[in-house]
Amino acid sequence: MSEEIIMRSEQRMKSLKTLTLAVYILYALSYFTGITAIIGIIINYVKQEEVAGTWLESHFRWQIRTFWFGLLWAVIGAATIVILIGFAILFANFIWIIYRIVKGWLNLNDNKPMSD
Q1: Which end of the chain is more exposed for a tag (fewer CB within 10 A), N or C?
Q2: Are the beta carbons of 100 and 23 closer than 8 angstroms?
């Protein structure tokens, strides 16, 4: 019986890891589609309870912060385009989000939690 429980637990973690990877992909695709990041953040909040207490919780926290801070800086950048600094803010935000997606993806691939 305990072997069955271990197998279920391993399958659950594998499924949650795949879901976490899907959210990273959705965030990356948002540069081409626009809406996929919204789907990703919804998944983060809906499934957050399921990853609580696991090493994947840190990835969900990382993804949620990436979304909200990325959105904040996008709004600030868009609002300041008129005074030209907005272009620099938007470019820096673009690089920062790419960095966070890549770093998160690499850590996920190596089964490592994210450090804040």
Answers
A1: N
A2: no
Q: What are the extents of the domains in the chain?
A: 2-50+57-109
Q: At which residue do the structure tokens 């993806």 appear?
A: 105
- pTM: predicted TM-score of the whole model, two decimal places: 0.91
Q: Which of 40, 90, 85 is nearest to 66 (CA)?
A: 40
Q: And the tokens for 37?
A: 């990041």
Segment 2-11 long-range contacts (CB within 8 Å, at least 24 positions apart): none
What whole-number distance in Å separates Cα of residue 65 and Cα of residue 56? 14
Amino acid at 54: T
3-state secondary structure 31-60: HHHCCHHHHHHHHHHHHHHHHCCCCHHHHH
> Tokens standing for 47?
């499934």
**Cα angle for residues 90, 91, 94 (degrees, 5° grid):** 85
Cα–Cα distance for residue pair 46/76, rounded to 1 Å: 28
